[in-house]
């Protein structure tokens, strides 16, 4: 690699560091501005608290939002014959619990909604129960007009039709039905029912014994005279105030990897920016919409498609210590006004585990950032890394050992390229005296083409390909970047300990600092240190064997400073990633040490001399190079003649 290339890499790295620092400050200002905006809009359009109404549908007064009278007959005082659901505004909330093999579901009759989803196999970083969905931090309701009234279903009491069992296992399933009835003929008496049970809005939850995916259907039965006749879409409002589930870090890894994702029906998976406040109007149909955190997600999947939606994620200024961010979605579901109609959906609430999400064949695995923007990188993870992890995980192997075995396998695969790279560098090293002679023979700038032609001839006669040393290194870059994407996104490593690291998916710390170092953080990661030291060791060995090191004094300093810069960059990253880079450098060092013992410079030089005796056939590239040299010489000769005149 040339001096200019190294300088370019270093400058690019420094620019990235500077941009990262500038972007962090910019993000903080954007968050403050967005929070101020959200605060100003909260009374008109505050979905996240469940206390406001959209500005577009404020008409009509909702008795469910009015205080009850103090006369002890609240149902009678709040009953409004002109309001179709006023009778359902009164009641006592009832909670029910259903559990399957993977989570526990809590239901609330107020709103007919899921009140909580607690995953059984996972804990938060504080070792507390992992509640993925909490009624105190979320909203979920339908919103529409009925007889000139703005109806929000979360303000009314549903009737719950519970299954006989509260626990489901294996391939069994149960249904929980929640029905919202309109008013009957009047106040409840012996002859007049309070509710008209021939008409209702129904939520049907189908819980399966061994799946994170549940069925969710919205049914409208005989509501054609209730819901406004000009209604073609009903808003389904879904909002969540997410709490932090992972260990906080200076880089806010969880925040960067948490956002709203969606799958257009005819396009690839898209998402809002996770590093800043973002929103989007989805005017084309979508198959699913997901609230995704670093290792978990909740995803609503339409049986057919969602015609339109409005999505948003942002950070509120009113943030608790474990607050992560807010996510909002207003999804339009079609309504035709027929006597009976249904809108079918599925709801996934669980981990971002590749093989689980892939088996649904919905592109949900795209929620895991495996580098799908780069074709080769994605397939390295999908075809090689993940299957190896799954196989060894099934055998009960410790994850630190799995990473060690994975590193060994990858090094074995690329060992032929490593060998070729070293042989090429050895050939280049032994012909350095001849290259030095060519530099002396063609010292002038105008002789550059002639010197290049002479060097190409030398390489050709010696049997050397100048790119042979670079191509193997370039082919390893996809593997390096694939690992960079895989380890921080792998839920398999979450809260798995190895040596001194208590969580391989997050950074390890052997010393917490009382202050924060810009770009570095407030802790010392030992795996990051071993990564930097192993890279320095490899660099030292490489520079000793590089003939160019003496020719380019600045190159030596740049090569040694790179591991130090990566130490700052990776101190807050996954300890598994730094552990892998440490192993990779040490194994490369070992490979190079063994190859050096196998290759004798004198034998290499003798082979080159033998190659020179063989007749050399000009390649097309060399022929073009010679033609260019001739043209350059002719142009130089003509210019010299003009100057003499």
Report on the architecture of this protein.
The protein has helices spanning 3-45, 74-78, 253-256, 354-358, 375-394, 399-430, 432-441, 448-462, 470-489, 526-545, 548-551, 553-570, 575-598, 601-613, 620-644, and strands at residues 95-99, 103-108, 113-123, 129-134, 138-146, 149-152, 159-161, 173-180, 200-208, 213-221, 233-243, 259-264, 270-271, 278-282, 286-292, 296-306, 308-314, 323-334, 340-351, 511-517, 521-524. The chain is α+β, with helices and mostly antiparallel strands. The protein is elongated, with a radius of gyration of 33 Å. The strands form four sheets. It has a nine-stranded antiparallel sheet with strand order 7-8-9-10-19-16-15-12-13, with no helix packed on it. Strands 6-5-11-18-17-14 form a six-stranded antiparallel sheet. The chain contains 15 helices and 21 strands. It folds into three domains: 46-368, Beta-galactosidase, Chain A, domain 5 (Distorted Sandwich), CATH 2.70.98; 377-608, no CATH class; 615-644. Helices cover 40% and strands 24% of the residues.
């Amino acid at each position: 690699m040339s001096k200019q290339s190294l300088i370019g890499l270093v400058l690019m790295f420094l620019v990235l560091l500077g941009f990262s620092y500038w972007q962090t400050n910019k993000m903080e200002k954007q968050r403050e501005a967005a929070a101020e905006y959200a605060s100003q809009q909260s009374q008109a359009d505050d979905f996240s608290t469940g206390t406001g109404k959209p500005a577009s549908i404020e008409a009509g007064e909702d008795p469910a939002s009015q205080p009850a009278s103090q006369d002890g007959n609240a149902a009678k005082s709040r009953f409004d014959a002109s309001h179709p659901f006023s009778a359902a505004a009164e009641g006592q909330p009832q909670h029910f619990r259903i559990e399957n093999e993977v989570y526990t579901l809590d239901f609330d009759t107020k709103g007919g909604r899921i009140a909580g989803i607690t995953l059984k196999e996972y804990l938060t970083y504080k070792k507390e129960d992992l509640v993925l969905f909490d009624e105190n931090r979320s909203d979920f309701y339908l919103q529409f007009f009925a007889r000139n009234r703005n109806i929000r279903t979360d303000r009314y009491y549903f009737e719950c039709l519970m299954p006989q069992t509260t626990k489901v296992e294996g391939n069994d399933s149960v249904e929980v039905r929640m029905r919202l009835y309109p008013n009957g003929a009047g106040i409840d008496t012996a002859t007049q029912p309070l509710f008209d049970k021939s008409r209702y809005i129904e939520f049907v939850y189908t819980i399966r014994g061994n799946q994170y995916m549940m069925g969710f259907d919205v049914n409208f039965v005989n509501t054609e005279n209730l819901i406004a006749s000009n209604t073609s879409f009903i808003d389904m409002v879904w909002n969540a105030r997410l709490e932090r589930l992972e260990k906080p870090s200076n880089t806010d890894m969880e925040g960067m990897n948490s956002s709203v994702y969606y799958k257009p029906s005819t396009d690839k998976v898209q998402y809002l920016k996770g590093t800043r406040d973002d929103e989007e109007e989805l005017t084309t149909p979508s198959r699913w919409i997901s609230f995704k955190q670093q290792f978990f997600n909740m995803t609503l999947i339409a049986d057919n498609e969602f015609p339109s939606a409005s999505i948003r994620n942002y950070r509120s200024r009113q943030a608790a210590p474990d607050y992560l961010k807010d996510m909002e979605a207003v999804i339009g579901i079609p309504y035709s006004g027929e006597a009976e109609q249904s809108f079918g959906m599925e709801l996934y609430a669980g981990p971002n585990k590749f093989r689980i999400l892939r088996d649904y064949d919905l592109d949900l695995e795209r929620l895991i950032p495996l580098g799908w923007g780069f074709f080769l990188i994605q397939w390295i993870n999908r075809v090689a890394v993940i299957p190896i992890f799954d196989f060894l995980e099934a055998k009960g192997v410790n994850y630190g050992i799995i990473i060690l075995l994975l590193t060994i396998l990858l090094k074995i695969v690329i060992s032929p390229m490593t060998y070729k790279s070293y042989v090429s560098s050895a050939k280049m090293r032994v012909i350095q005296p001849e290259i030095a002679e060519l530099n002396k023979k063609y010292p002038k700038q105008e002789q550059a083409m002639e010197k290049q032609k002479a060097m190409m001839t030398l390489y050709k006669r010696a049997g050397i390909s100048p790119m042979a040393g670079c191509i193997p290194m370039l082919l390893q870059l996809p593997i390096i970047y694939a690992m960079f994407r895989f380890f921080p996104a792998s839920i398999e490593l979450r809260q798995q300990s190895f040596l001194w690291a208590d969580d391989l998916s997050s950074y390890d710390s052997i010393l917490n600092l009382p202050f924060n170092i810009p770009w570095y953080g407030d802790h010392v990661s030992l795996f990051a240190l071993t990564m930097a030291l192993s890279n320095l060791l490899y660099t030292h060995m490489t520079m000793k064997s590089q003939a160019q090191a003496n020719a380019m004094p600045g190159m030596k300093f740049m090569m040694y400073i790179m591991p130090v810069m990566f130490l700052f960059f990776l101190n807050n990253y996954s300890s598994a990633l730094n552990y892998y880079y440490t192993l990779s450098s040490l194994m490369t060092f070992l490979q190079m040490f063994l190859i050096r013992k196998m290759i004798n410079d004198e034998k290499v030089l003798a082979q080159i001399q033998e190659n020179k005796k063989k007749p050399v056939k000009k390649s097309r590239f060399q022929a073009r190079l010679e033609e260019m040299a001739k043209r350059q010489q002719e142009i130089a000769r003509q210019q010299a003649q003009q100057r003499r005149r």
